[in-house]
Amino acid sequence: MNLTMRAILSSTAILLSAATANAFTSSRIGATQSIGRARTASSAQVGELIEFAKYEGLGNDFILIDDRDRDTPSLTPEQSERLCHRNFGIGGDGVIFALKAPPEGDFDFSMRIYNSDGSEPEMCGNGIRCFAQFLKDLGADAESYRVNTLAGPIVPVMNADSTITVDMGEPILSGPTVPTTLEPNAESNSVVEQTHVDKNGKQWKISAVSMGNPHAVIFVDDLEKDVDFEVDGPALEGDVGAFPAKTNVEFCQVLSPTHIKMKVWERGAGPTLACGTGTCALVVAAIRANKIPRPGKGEGVRVTLPGGDLVIEWREGNNRVYMTGPANLSFKGTAMLK
Ligand code: ZDP
After folding, report:
1. How far is the CA of 149 from the centre of ligand 1 (A)?
2. Considering 87, 96, 163, 293, which has the largest number of Cβ atoms within 10 A of its Cβ?
């Protein structure tokens, strides 16, 4: 095939190339002479080819962009939304940008993320593990990274068994800060199993927790019988009367004192296979609502999500939440912006 034909073909299709993690030899993913563009402060344009890597943490999948020489994302929210489309784009639950550290503060990098609908969340638990693995594969090989996020500093630590543990910070419990308008009914203005009726007239008991982003945690006896996922998820996500910034929704079933099963309806992304921040929020909510006892020091709670398991420890000494789980490269490639 000659070059002209290739150019024509590439203008109608997104080129994907499979690769393994050890294929990262240069400091820049897939850097080539012929493809790519000058990394300026401006955003990329329609018709441009951009390099990306695709990662997943328990099937919560993200397009990773190497913007380490930039302060702001090289793609707009609209371009990111189109790239996340599973038929017209690469497909993904969000686009994550690895950016320069800000001049102030002791950071290694900054992270920004756009959801698959183009909205921008403050934080992303599975995403930050993917982010850390992406940096490692790019050659920034450290034991841990101090990452500047819209939810403050977050520190992923690379474990010897190839899992990643992330210090997700302290949960935010004060209702107005989450933010929720549900009436506080527990200490520190928090909302624990507060009764709420959704727009379809269905009654729920909601615990509101923020891990930088808002979560509505709901415990049910039976995940399959008690939840009409595709109806209840969006009804609660978009309930701006109760959650003015919308909310992620976690439906949970306690299986044992150290094991919880959860299904998530994500704000701005809909049903996803896993949600890191949501898993942290639900363990905090479970302990506060006495659904499970607080585990001993150094012990975690196992949470089974549709995409696999995460282990969460809410440490009593410092009130911080630690999340441990995997993050893996799926493929890398070149995509055309539409
Ligand atoms: O808060 C939001 O809008 C979420 N959709 C952000 C993504 C959260 C995520 N699923 C996580 O793992 O924390 C990525």
Report:
1. 13
2. 96
Mind listing the pLDDT tens digit for each residue in 42-85?
A: 678 889 999 999 999 999 999 999 999 999 999 999 999 999 99
The Cα 114–Cα 122 span in angstroms is: 9
Please say whether the beta carbons of 267 and 240 come within 8 A: no
Is ligand 1 within 6 A of the CB of residue 210?
no
Dihedral over Cα of 223, 192, 308, 147: its sign: positive
Q: Rounded distance, CA 28 to CA 166, Å?
A: 25
Instruction: Indicate the helix (H) or strand (E) that contains 12.
Output: helix 3-12
Position 77, amino acid: P
Looking at residue 144, what DSSP letter applies? B
Q: How far is the CA of 121 from the centre of ligand 1 (A)?
A: 7
124 given a catalytic annotation? yes
Give the span between the Cα atoms of 169 and 153, in whole angstroms.
8
Q: Of 235, 257, 242, whose CA–CA distance to 207 is shortest?
A: 242
Task: Using the mean position of ligand 1's atoms as its centre, give its distance from the Cα of residue 25 in Å.
Answer: 30
Count Cβ atoms below 10 Å from residue 105 Cβ, excluding itself.
11
Residue of 321, 336, 333, 331 lying closest to 128 (CA atoms) = 321
Encode pLDDT of 104-143 as tens digits: 999 999 999 999 999 999 999 999 999 999 999 999 989 9
pTM: 0.84
Evaluate: CB of 166 within 6 angstroms of ligand 1.
no
Cα–Cα distance, 107 to 101 (Å, whole number): 6
Catalytic option among 84, 124, 130, 280: 124
267 lines ligand 1 (CB under 6 A): yes
Q: Is 252 a catalytic residue?
A: no
